[in-house]
Amino acid sequence: VQLQASGGGLVQAGGSLRLSCAASGRTFSSYTMGWFRQAPGKEREFVARISGSGGSSSYADSVKGRFTISRDNAKNTVYLQMNNLKPEDTAVYYCATSRAYYNNNYESGYDYWGQGTQVTVSS
């Protein structure tokens, strides 16, 4: 299984970015996909997840109302639309695919991870 994240960059506070994560090597639509992030000096934390069908999603409180997770199962790709970005959103963002039948927010439930993409928000 391979996950390739892209779309990070430098943006001013209040701006937007869209992250993408292309997956291969697994029946994409059968698995929950998640986004996590790790800021300098901090532990990695959950950001958002979406079920295999795309019918349900969940967000961390810190991003609720600003970020939207979506997926295109025909393209084996999951997206994270990030609006109204804040300096505290600065982090390396990782996509991950869940273990079979898992649909929750804990890192232990995800078994394959992308390489990460840097998001930097300037004030």
Annotate the secondary structure layout.
Elements: E1 2-6, E2 9-12, E3 17-24, E4 33-38, E5 45-50, E6 57-59, E7 67-72, E8 77-82, E9 91-98, E10 110-113, E11 117-122
Parallel strand pairs: 2-11
Antiparallel strand pairs: 1-3, 3-8, 4-5, 4-9, 5-6, 7-8, 9-10, 9-11
Radius of gyration: 13 Å
Distance between the termini: 37 Å
What is the helix fraction of residues, given as a range? under 10%
List the quaternary state of the chains: single chain
Number of helices: 0
Helix and strand sequence: EEEEEEEEEEE
- The dominant shape is globular
Task: Describe this entry's structure for a reader.
The protein has 123 residues and is mainly β. A hairpin with a 6-residue loop joins strand 4 and strand 5. It is globular, with a radius of gyration of 13 Å. The model has no long low-confidence stretch (mean pLDDT 96). Helices cover 0% and strands 50% of the residues. The strands form two sheets. Strands 2, 4, 5, 6, 9, 10 and 11 form a seven-stranded mixed beta sheet that branches.
Question: Summarize this, please?
Answer:
It contains no helices and eleven strands.
What are the key terms here?
mainly beta
